[in-house]
From TrEMBL:
Keywords: DNA-binding, Transcription, Transcription regulation. Residues 10-67 form the HTH lysR-type domain. It comes from Trinickia dinghuensis. One of its GO terms (cellular component) is cytosol. SUPFAM superfamilies: Periplasmic binding protein-like II (SSF53850), Winged helix' DNA-binding domain (SSF46785). This is LysR family transcriptional regulator.
């Protein structure tokens, strides 16, 4: 069905003509300024009066003078046209010029590992980059409140007006004390009989993803020890108290504990005689729709290239794994 709601608003050229008449003081001078005939200007004024249903010029006077409605229209039209100019300038600056400030929020594991690379790269295109770290829920709220321009999250729901593009994915890995024997690994439940399972809190998205993965593998491990963040979790594992499930970037974030840890892919475990299916965690770039021109695409590609070309290699080497074991081919953009 055709939307006719905008037909009751004057076109821009009609408002421009009216402002020209008031600013120049006469129809003849307005015609000269606009580069059209006096008849053309008069026709536009008649069209304006027909659309608005009011008289804009008092034609009983010589020269014709604006009515009260005409003066009020001049005030509104001047403001509208100025806002239109500001809109065009702002949009063009975003699309083609250096942006003065970029406010980027990232989940902790991203901010501590890939964040420095992104900051250095964005510094070449922006006068200032502000980096915030926090949970996905916190970042999503800040993005919706327009306190952030971009957010790198690991899931959650997407609010209306916000676009989300997948960056990359990584697998969940088992993290064990360095000296724990791994030659007889079977299931995670069996492992939990020798080492307590140290979980991420169910309040976090990573904790919820791990819980879902355990249920998919029919693992029912007693909930005894939980942590909201990776640092205390890895310190407990390094001390030989238990084992954990985490991701390469989270482990790399707490790499001071790596000398006392061993990292094992979940494929080393099996259930019903079959290796565990891979559990994954995905990172997303979120931003408000119809904003920032080509900048979201540039940041998206910058993050992916920075991760694949440098971070993934460094993390794989530190964990004693291959890049293929920690880096998963991204899915299509969402």
């Amino acid at each position: 069905m055709k939307d006719n709601s905008f037909e009751r608003y004057p076109e821009w050229e009609l408002l421009v003509s009216w402002v020209a008449i008031i600013a120049s003081g006469s129809i003849s001078q307005a015609a000269t300024r606009l580069g059209i005939t006096q008849a053309g200007v008069s026709h536009r004024i008649s069209a304006l009066e027909a659309i608005l249903g009011v008289t804009l010029l008092d034609r009983a006077t010589r020269p014709a003078r604006p009515t009260n409605a005409g003066h009020r229209l001049y005030e509104y039209a001047t403001e509208l046209l100025q806002n239109a100019d500001d809109m065009l300038t702002g949009v063009r600056n975003v699309a083609h010029s250096k942006r003065s400030t970029i406010r980027l929020g990232c989940v902790d594991s991203f901010a501590a590992t890939i964040g420095p690379i992104i900051i250095k790269a964005l510094a070449a295109t922006s006068n200032q980059v502000r980096l915030w770290a926090g949970s996905t829920a916190l970042l999503q709220g800040q993005l919706e409140a327009r306190e952030l321009d971009f957010a790198v999250t690991t899931g959650g729901t997407v609010a209306p007006g916000v676009q989300r593009q997948q960056l990359f994915s990584e697998p969940y890995l088992a993290v064990l004390p360095k000296k724990f024997p791994t030659d007889r690994l079977t299931t995670l439940t069996a492992l939990s009989r020798n080492l307590q399972f140290i979980r991420y809190s169910a309040r976090s998205i990573i904790g919820q993803e791990i819980e879902y993965g355990l249920q998919m593998h029919s693992e029912n491990i007693e909930r005894t020890c939980e942590s909201d963040t990776s640092d205390p979790m890895m310190s407990l594992v390094a001390a030989g108290i238990g084992f954990a499930l985490s991701t390469p970037l989270c482990i790399w974030q707490t790499r001071q504990y790596l000398p006392d840890l061993q990292i094992v892919p979940l494929s080393a475990f099996s259930g019903d005689g079959r290796p565990y299916a891979r559990m994954t965690r995905s990172y997303y770039l979120c931003f408000r729709e119809s904003a920032f021109g080509n900048l979201p695409s540039s940041i998206h590609d910058l993050i992916r290239i920075g991760y694949a070309s440098q971070v993934a290699k460094d993390v794989a080497a530190a964990l004693g794994l291959t890049v293929e074991q920690i880096c998963i081919q991204r899915e299509s953009r969402r």
